[in-house]
Amino acid sequence: MIFDDYFIVIPVYRLPEDKYYSEMNKDFEKLVSSTWDEDFRKNNPDLVENWKRSHRSSYGGDWEFNEIIGHIKLFFMGSQVRGEYWSTKPRRKVKTRKKEFEFKAHKLAAESEIWDKTNSGILSAIEEYLSRCERELKNRHIDLREFEALKAHIDWVSVHKVKNKFA
């Protein structure tokens, strides 16, 4: 059952941003150190920088849009918070530039009950559900930056009323 009445989409990544760039830099250093000695690198900074840009592209590009492997589409079903899960097709998640997303589950984790239909009560249920998703998606990075930046400014009671088809 796929819902179009989700209220927010949370991205899921293969790994956290800092780890991705750390691995990319280690790979570049390994490549450069096996090809050029330290003196050559110091005397040719433009060449090293050009090669670094080329390596970044061949490695997989920037993290934010290229390492995404899934999305959690949060929605309300009556007094519950649930989240559809969409993920890339290949079972093994590796760095790649070609991705096709497919529907995986109508709820990623056990639903979270909204006991208190106030802004703080609804937000608490959403956060509880996201916490369950994090436990379900071990070794993956759920990117909550936008949610964290917006959550205090949203009228959750109004969102619940508008987005809840089963109330």
Automatic annotation (TrEMBL):
- Protein origin, superkingdom: Bacteria
This protein is called Uncharacterized protein
